[in-house]
Design a protein that fits this description.
- By secondary structure, the chain is α/β, with parallel strands linked by helices.
- It is about 30% helix and about 20% strand.
- It is built from six helices and eight strands; from the N terminus they run βαβαββαββαβαβα.
- The protein has an eight-stranded parallel β-sheet with strand order 1-8-7-6-5-4-3-2.
- α4 runs parallel beside α5 and α5 packs parallel to α6.
- It starts with a strand and ends with a helix.
- The mean pLDDT is about 95.
- The site of zinc ion has 5 residues, from β2.
Length: about 220
Amino acid sequence: MSSKKIAPSVMCAPLLEVERCLQELESCGSDLLHIDVMDGSFVSNYTLGTDFIRQLKERAKLPLDIHLMINDPERKMDWFVFGEGDYVSVHFEASAHLHRALTAIRARGAKALVAINPSTPISSLDSLLDDIDGVLIMTVNPGFAGQKLVESTIKKIQKLRTWLVAEGYGHLEIEVDGNVSFENAKRMSEAGADIFVAGSSSVFAKGATLAENTENLRKLIEL
Ligand code: DX5
Ligand code: ZN
């Protein structure tokens, strides 16, 4: 069985049809549900919030993959419902006390990931490797769906994978988020990515069902 994971981005679902989409995503082999939280400050947009996550957690059969695009996440960790087996990402650029946030995530049995923007260097992760379960590489600038890939991030994935292996941290997962289209996903997978956030450019692409798009994406990421 492949270790590659597909994480459909719930912000890209038609919001009045979330229930139907959940059923379809669960039955077609999605691995995680990616939930974007934006605070209008770290990124200019607003998206899904604490009440939505609470209700989703009660209903969802799949683990959550909560992407916190919020400033000072360590102050608000208790506002979010998550636990054993869920994934939670905090941004390197958004916190002066990252270890506090990462420790709080792991204390609840969830996997702690650090997210880095396209312009943030891999070297920023140097003092965090013992405290994380993975790295979320933003392949667009966070804030909006439907953006174009920042091309240099493909090389960055490869560089990160090579560096992690060399440092003895090859077990850490690499997640990619932003314009993970069918074509880009294949290149990201070859570069060493493990978790693929599937938004408007793949699973929610028009013209095919969620199940058809998921199957298509699965074929392209499995090497
Ligand atoms: C970007 C978001 C992503 C995004 C992915 O800030 O985190 O989840 O919606 O979807 P597309 O494929 O539209 O880039
Ligand atoms: Zn995201």
